[in-house]
Amino acid sequence: MREQAPAEVVSDRTQTQALVSVARDEVPYYVAVVAADANGNYSALAETSVFGPVRSVDNVPPDPVQGVRADDAPADRGGRLRVRWTPNEDPTVREYRLYVLVRVPQSEADLNRALAAVAVEWEEGSLPETLVPSEGDGLDRYVAVVAVDGSGNRSALDAGSVAGPVRSVVNVLEAMGPVRVGAGFDRQSSVFVPAAAVVPGMRIDILPVEEPLLRSVQEANQNLAEAHIDPETEELLLDTVRWVDSNQERFRVPLTLTLGYPIQIEGEVLQDLRLFRLNDRLQPARWELVPGTHTRNELDRTLSAPIETPGVYRLARLLLPRLLDQVVVYPNPFRIQQDGVVIFRNLTREARIEIFTLDGRRVKRILPNGSGSATWDGRNENGDPVASGLYLFLIVAPTDRRTGQLFVVR
User: Fold this and answer.
1) Beta-sheet pairing, 400-409 with 334-335
2) What is the β-pairing status of strands 389-397 and 352-356?
3) How far is CA 314 from the centre of its chain?
4) What number of CA atoms fall less than 13 Å from residue 192's CA on the CB side?
5) Which residues contact residue 8 at a Cβ distance below 8 angstroms, ignoring those fewer than 6 apart?
6) What is the C-alpha radius of gyration for the chain, rounded to an integer number of angstroms?
7) Common-topology check for domains 179-317 and 328-409
8) What is d(CA 134, CA 73) in angstroms, rounded to the nearest whole number?
9) Cβ neighbours of residue 163 under 8 Å, at least 6 residues apart?
10) In angstroms, rounded to a whole number, what is the distance separating the alpha carbons of residues 223 and 233?
11) Most buried among 201, 273, 281, 339, using CB within 10 Å?
């Protein structure tokens, strides 16, 4: 039999203990100790030279779970929360345990009072996401996640291990009456669906924005000047971005989207606050002002506006020019068939546009929409395409005016 190398060699004659590594925990081992002299002679084994069986035990818990996020489970009829977390790098982790609570847990003892508990078996490559019961729609819940290793050690709780408050929401509409759908992760965000807009089985979800939409949002945020968005207040309003998802491409009648704004928004900034929609069909993507009346509720710190389609929305400060000295009109020449519309940019809030023939006959008036931009499709007030030729445009604001020439090609 080949001689096996010792598990540990101790050279200090005064040392009477040592740590020995073993291949696996919870496996019975026997330990034998022999003495060796300078010539390499080993002592014989006596009954007291061997001890066992003995098992090694892992009593070090995994690190606390981080990155716990919870929101309403999308596209359901309520009663569930979606929970996600960052996988623990400890290879000994065998499962994650998720606890649904009515308040933030202060200690592991609080987990014993959970409304619901779910265990998720874990192996490399698993998806760190699952659904848990909320035990009641529209009620604040907190979700704690702990990691458990093969020896049953549970990770401690810290700030990154708990998410909330979060609420489960009914996203699939059955009733034909008006209904308000909230965002499970944000009390201030909601969509009001009037009775005329409800379709049986209609789905409305308000979700955090994730990839690939997040890339378009970031692209549009680099292009704020095109939307007349104030970059100075951008940092305060970045967290207002919401994804309104639905199984309807266009709503029967407009819904009302309500988003909350932070307490730091006040004064002139609050007066200029507007709702914008992401247009990710443009290259680069761009925010566009939502048309219609924008209504503020300063008590709730929310702003509401009508929306006609699902999409990504946000709040931002609309910062329009005070004068017309930076107006841009393009393309010029304007080829109706090729270009579709001519665009007037950098308008003031109340600016109106009038298009005239060279002999002074007005062919089109474009009323202000408050967005800082306007378009003309080359048609007169009767809806007929105008003739090719040179036209004059007049832009009028309460304190300024601008004139120019526009060549139209049919």
Assistant:
1) parallel
2) antiparallel
3) 11
4) 9
5) 18, 19, 20
6) 34
7) no
8) 10
9) 68, 69, 70, 83, 142, 143
10) 14
11) 273
Range 66-166 has CATH code 2.60.40.10: yes
Amino acid (1-letter code) at residue 145:
V
pLDDT digits (tens, 9 = 90+) for 107-156: 889 999 999 999 999 988 888 999 999 999 999 999 999 999 988 899 99
CB atoms within 10 A of CB 90: 14
Q: What is the 3-state secondary structure (H, E, C) of 323-342?
A: CCCCCEEECCCEEHHHHCCE
* 3-state secondary structure (DSSP) of residue 276: strand
**Assigned token pair, 154:** 């549970």
Tens-place pLDDT, residues 229-254 = 999 999 999 999 999 999 999 999 99
For 328-409, give the CATH class. Answer: mainly beta
Task: Given CATH 2.60.220, say whether it is the number of domain 179-317.
Answer: yes
Phi and psi based region of residue 370 (left: phi greater than 0; alpha: psi -120 to 50; beta: remaining): left
Contact 361, 285 (CB under 8 A): no
CA separation for the pair 130, 397 (Å, rounded): 56
Strand order in the sheet with 334-335: 334-335, 400-409, 389-397, 352-356, 362-366
pLDDT band, very low/low/confident/very high, at 2 (cuts 50, 70, 90):
low
